[in-house]
Design brief:
By secondary structure, the protein is α/β, with parallel strands linked by helices. The protein has one domain: 2-Layer Sandwich (Endonuclease, Chain A), CATH 3.30.870.10. Helix content is about 35%, strand content about 20%. It has five helices and seven strands; from the N terminus they run αβαβαβββαβαβ. It has a seven-stranded mixed sheet with strand order 6-5-4-1-2-3-7, with helices on both faces. GO terms for molecular function: RNA endonuclease activity producing 5'-phosphomonoesters, hydrolytic mechanism.
């Protein structure tokens, strides 16, 4: 958790999160702090998991963090985030964190999970292309109430 939070607290300009399920409050709080600092944040989440018990979605929406999903029979099962992947700032090293880890307390404390962190530019660029493809394809979440 400490290493994950270390990377999650590092963006200067942008954080793009593509996550099947987000319920962990420590990670959600880190995202909200970035938002307050002025970091551009975008989140893509699976539609079926968006409002599940404990989902961080409502907190993200409350802070006007853009979140997108697609209602589909297919799962949006990605689990990755991009840190400063959309900047030309030479002070920043673009990073992608990827693996099997959903951002849930169960996954962090009770499961065997894999997480890789890399600044290898070809990998970062491939994940950035995938995020941008989904961002265009998916729609903003609109409160139906």
């Amino acid at each position: 958790m400490d290493r994950l939070l270390h990377y999650l607290n590092s963006p200067r300009h942008s954080l793009d999160v593509c996550m099947y399920l987000m319920t962990n409050m420590d990670l959600t709080n880190a995202i909200l702090k970035l938002n307050i600092r002025g970091v551009k944040i975008r989140v893509i989440i699976d539609a079926d998991m968006a409002y599940c018990n404990g989902s961080a979605l409502k907190r993200l929406e409350k802070h006007r963090i853009p979140v997108r999903w697609m209602k589909s029979t297919n799962l949006m099962h990605h689990k990755f985030c991009l840190i400063d992947a959309g900047t030309d700032d030479v002070r920043c090293t673009p990073v992608v964190m990827l693996g099997s880890l959903n951002w849930t307390t169960q996954a962090l404390n009770g499961n065997w999970e894999a997480v890789a962190v890399t600044s290898q530019i070809k990998l970062v660029e491939q994940y950035k292309i995938e995020f941008e493809r989904l961002w265009v394809q998916f729609k903003p979440i609109v409160d139906s109430v």
